[in-house]
Amino acid sequence: MGMVDTAATQAAVTHTATTATRTTATHTATTHTAAAARNSNSNTNSNINNETDTATTATTANTATTANTANTATAAHKLTDTVSSWGSWIRGERRPGSTLLDAGNRGMVVPVKAPRLTRTRQLISRVFTRARVASTQREARRLVREGELNNELQRITQFPAAALIRPVAVVAADVEHDARGRFNRRWFSMPSSSLTFTLVATAPREAMNHKDFTGWVNVLSCIAVIDAIHEAAPADLDSKLTFAWPNDILCDGMRLGSVNVSYTSLPNDEQHAAVLITFGLNLAMPASCLPTPNATSLSMHVPDMPSADTLRDMITASVVAALPLQVSGLAAQHDAHQQATVLRVRESLSRHARSRHFQLNDGSSVDGTIVDFNIDASVTIRTSAGDRRLHPSDVGVTAQCIDVVLA
């Protein structure tokens, strides 16, 4: 989101045009007297938009009485999008509608444009890119429900499964203005600086009825995006990138992004359902724009990083190619493959073993330290009352299975 999972974040940006003030100045001068005057334009602002006004200039004369009039030219450029000191208003220090030019003139103008995803289009037949959208996950669900993907879904599901989950489409956006994660927490993204996309795949309903499957899809999605970052980033991040159970990606112990998995029914298909796997990463956000103190951005750890648009495509394409193989490999080589993955996750979790606060589905919470990662994708946490297990489904990971009943 890039994505940061936080309730304090507001990522809604609006398009409004402002009108420049036209100022007329009249100056009178006498012989051998120089008169100079300057008129200042008034700055107007909308929600998060800014138009620039040109300054009014006045000419002076050294001769007999002269009157010169200077008019301000209006330069009302309608910007694609504007962002006003992202970090400060996200943290509640400024309202989104406050003046762009206040706080030391730190307002930024950021264009919003749909991602290109050239590599990704070579791997999957349907790629939907949007400049802005409320949520790529909700947009993906809409495409499934309204039949936009019927041809692809029918073609995939009528043949024996070559993979347990099979990619159908990618829905990506430059900006999500109302994306939600676990427990309806808001995800935040910034134009030209975040990776936000949803992978639409199919899976047998029978598999979805097992907590192991739903838990592992979430874990393997996190692993897939970590591997994709390793491939795309021209830097050694082995000691920095880690998985934070149940769905976060950390870099140097700071939150770099998150993964969110949900499910929806397929039209006229009772044997399969759609798996909607949403990814959010902070790629090129400045430190001042990060929404929470424990958030980070990839550009802060990778010198000479490729452009955010290039990274988006590289990471998305890598996830699309690798994730189905990882999930299928787990099912086909259940013991060996799963044990290797368990060991990898355990090692990752051990790097940041600390007491954490876990919110539970029933509204309660528990504090504890993760001491083990188990074969069913659950964790064992050590609390003041003793050890207990938590499954991803206990902490909101599959809470968004809106219209698929999971056993």
TrEMBL record:
Keyword list, A-Z: Ligase
Could you tell me which Pfam families the record lists for this protein?
A: BPL_LplA_LipB (PF03099)
Report one GO cellular component: cytoplasm
Q: Where is this region: Disordered?
A: 14-69
Q: Signal sequence: where?
A: none
The UniProt record lists the BPL/LPL catalytic domain at 171-276
UniProt cross-references to SUPFAM superfamilies, sorted A to Z: Class II aaRS and biotin synthetases
Entry-linked InterPro entries:
aa-tRNA-synth_II/BPL/LPL, BPL_LPL_catalytic
GO MF term set: biotin--[biotin carboxyl-carrier protein] ligase activity
Listed name of the protein: Putative biotin--[acetyl-CoA-carboxylase] ligase
Organism field: Bifidobacterium gallicum DSM 20093 = LMG 11596
Its lineage reads: Bacteria, Bacillati, Actinomycetota, Actinomycetes, Bifidobacteriales
